[in-house]
């Protein structure tokens, strides 16, 4: 089979590593991919925001299967375009991806199907939103409706902060169209858990739980990032909570999708808050997370590509998805300064035996250089979190480039409790 993965980050590199040895695959492309993937697949520099461009390539190459991984093309209907041209895909259709594409849609969906989530109010008028804040209690959560590179959520501690945020999102349009409408949400307290699930529209098979570290600096300080590291399993996500999530969240979500004829064949990501009143949904994503994917896929015992084929054909069985009962720790190596300004162009050195998931890298004079904020990640799995952490940090210390930066405390809080 001729297969393509759409995307260019660490997440896509891990998907590539997990499927590349499947004997059914005769040729493997990554669109656009990055310089760190070139030895494992053919990178094709196309504009993945343009469905027609990707479709043209897929038809010309007679691709058999396309894994559409990032949010933008999914929300933009790339799977619809490819499947209507007869090319099988892993990834939801546009009417399923809207669970991530519009936070207002997702909240209304949860309300329609009685899925536990924070109380919320939606606004398209800045004036009305500001008036609402005047009688609200703080902290309160303000979210841009559409995709905003993971930056569209503000937890406002005061009225002034809330008003400033509303003006920036709705009037100054710092997130463009995405912020023209907003959701204002009750602030939930608890531990967060990320649960990714394979979903073929008929069945849903949750993967091992994980916990990501979003803040830039040690001790959860600093700005929000795309993710600086992640561990699995999530120690707060007990068997009892998992059971409860299945009954009150996962199955009702699946039934809701079915009853609304939404075609979801891909990875459905549940961002959960484990509150005193039980687990509640913070958000849905319509795809694998980054760096959750780099953290959990090394623990997947079953063949990822076979699962993806089954998902696409609506033949998924929960027993097809088996994870090792081990711990995993993923640490991201970033360019110092990220998520703000950072220097690029520094050569990266690393032992050739390491399995590294590359993200923000380019090639210059036959050498990889950093070209983005999150540059690469390493993952280790072991029987205990402590060992997995040690191994990942051991590896990170042997990977070098000028001005590299990483958090030193991924999983440390959990290890100290255990
Ligand atoms: N209702 C809420 N109560 C408390 N914290 C929240 C709430 N909604 C979001 N958050 C926090 O903000 C983060 C980002 O929100 P999320 O809805 O996941 O948006 P995105 O991932 O698109 O930025 C969450 O991981 C969580 O830490
Ligand atoms: Mg989130």
Note down, in words, how this protein is organized:
The chain has 418 residues and is of the alpha+beta class. It has four domains: 2-91, 3-Layer(aba) Sandwich (Rossmann fold); 125-180, ATP-grasp fold, A domain (Dna Ligase, domain 1, 2-Layer Sandwich); 191-320, 2-Layer Sandwich (D-amino Acid Aminotransferase, Chain A, domain 1), CATH 3.30.470; 327-417, Phosphoribosylglycinamide synthetase, C-terminal domain (Glycinamide Ribonucleotide Synthetase, Chain A, domain 4), CATH 3.90.600.10. Helices cover 30% and strands 28% of the residues. It is built from 13 helices and 21 strands. It has helices at 10-19, 51-61, 71-75, 78-84, 94-101, 103-112, 126-134, 159-171, 239-259, 292-296, 304-312, 385-396, 412-417; strands at residues 2-7, 27-32, 42-43, 65-68, 88-90, 120-123, 140-144, 153-156, 182-186, 191-199, 204-206, 211-217, 221-232, 266-275, 278-285, 327-335, 357-358, 361-364, 367-370, 374-382, 404-405. The strands form five sheets. Strands 12, 13, 16, 17, 20 and 21 form a six-stranded antiparallel β-sheet that branches. A five-stranded parallel β-sheet has the order 3-2-1-4-5, with helices on both faces. Strands 6-9-7-8 form a four-stranded antiparallel β-sheet, with helices on both faces. Helix 5 packs across helix 6 (103-112) and helix 7 runs antiparallel to helix 8. The protein is globular. The site of adenosine-5'-diphosphate (ADP) has 15 residues, from strand 7, strand 8, strand 9 and strand 15.
What are the key terms here?
binds adenosine-5'-diphosphate, 13 helices, single chain, 418 residues, Dna Ligase, domain 1, D-amino Acid Aminotransferase, Chain A, domain 1
């Amino acid at each position: 089979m001729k297969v393509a993965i759409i995307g260019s980050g660490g997440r896509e590199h891990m998907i590539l590593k997990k499927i590349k040895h499947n004997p059914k695959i005769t040729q493997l492309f990554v669109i656009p991919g990055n310089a760190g993937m070139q030895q494992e697949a053919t990178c094709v520099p196309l504009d993945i925001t343009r469905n027609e461009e990707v479709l043209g390539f897929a038809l010309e190459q007679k691709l058999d299967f396309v894994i559409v991984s990032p949010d933008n093309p999914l929300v933009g209907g790339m799977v619809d375009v490819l499947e209507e041209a007869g090319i099988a895909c892993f990834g939801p259709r546009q009417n399923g991806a809207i669970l991530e594409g519009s936070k207002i849609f997702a909240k209304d969906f949860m309300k329609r199907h009685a899925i536990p989530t924070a109380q919320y109010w939606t606004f398209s008028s800045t004036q009305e939103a500001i008036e609402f804040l005047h009688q609200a209690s703080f902290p309160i959560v303000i979210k841009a409706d559409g995709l905003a590179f993971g930056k569209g959520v503000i937890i406002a501690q005061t009225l002034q902060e809330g008003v400033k945020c509303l003006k920036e999102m709705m009037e100054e349009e710092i997130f463009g169209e995405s912020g023209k409408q907003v959701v204002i949400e009750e602030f939930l307290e608890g531990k967060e858990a990320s649960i990714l699930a394979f979903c073929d529209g008929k069945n849903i098979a949750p993967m091992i739980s994980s916990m990501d570290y979003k803040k830039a600096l040690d001790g959860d300080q600093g700005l929000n990032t795309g993710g600086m590291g992640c561990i699995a399993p999530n120690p707060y996500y007990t068997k009892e909570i998992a059971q409860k999530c299945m009954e009150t969240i996962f199955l009702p979500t699946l039934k809701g999708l079915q009853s609304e004829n939404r075609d979801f064949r891909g990875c459905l990501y549940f961002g959960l808050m484990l509150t005193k009143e039980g687990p509640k949904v913070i958000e849905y994503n319509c795809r694998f997370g980054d760096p959750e994917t780099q953290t959990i896929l090394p623990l997947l015992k079953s063949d990822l590509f076979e699962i993806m084929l089954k998902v696409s054909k609506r033949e998924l069985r929960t027993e097809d998805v088996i994870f090792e009962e081990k711990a995993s720790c993923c640490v991201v190596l970033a360019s110092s300064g990220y998520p703000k300004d950072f220097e690029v162009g520094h050569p990266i050195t690393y032992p050739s035996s390491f399995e590294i998931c590359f993200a923000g890298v380019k090639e210059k004079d036959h050498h990889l250089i950093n070209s983005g904020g999150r540059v690469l990640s390493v993952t280790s799995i072991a029987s205990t979190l402590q060992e997995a952490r040690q191994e990942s940090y051991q590896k990170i210390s042997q990977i070098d480039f000028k001005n590299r930066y990483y958090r030193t405390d991924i999983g440390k809080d959990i290890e100290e409790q255990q």
